[in-house]
């Protein structure tokens, strides 16, 4: 694949994610939670959450739509970045803080987070690769160990709004 082709694919994906995020935000979570992503290797009913993190350097608010799974009340997300050789910015920003804001459909929470290790991580990775099978090809595409993050909702908060993106 040429660099131009790869760049075009990345831009198309960014555009899709921004539209997805905006739909989620404008609807207060009534739309965007469950999406058909079978055209990119996912399932017809794939669940998505939003996370809201502050930029560790910029201080700007970032809201990102992500596929998630639920394991015993913990919300699981994967920092895949499509198999890129570097972790996504949201992951670095999340690691800079003890808590993260999380929205699932029409409910939002402040949450704690952790990264599972060892056998637990292996089990969770297997679970998430069933939630979204392309994670397996993403891991094969890179030498980095794709992070898995588990979030525990702690305190209810207001759902995210588009105006949150303007805060810095």
TrEMBL record:
InterPro entries: F420H2_quin_Rdtase, Split_barrel_FMN-bd
Molecular function GO terms recorded: coenzyme F420 binding; oxidoreductase activity
Protein family according to the UniProt entry: Belongs to the F420H(2)-dependent quinone reductase family.
Gene Ontology cellular component list: plasma membrane
Protein name as it appears in the record: Nitroreductase
Catalytic activity: oxidized coenzyme F420-(gamma-L-Glu)(n) + a quinol + H(+) = reduced coenzyme F420-(gamma-L-Glu)(n) + a quinone
Pfam families referenced in this protein's UniProt entry, alphabetically: F420H2_quin_red
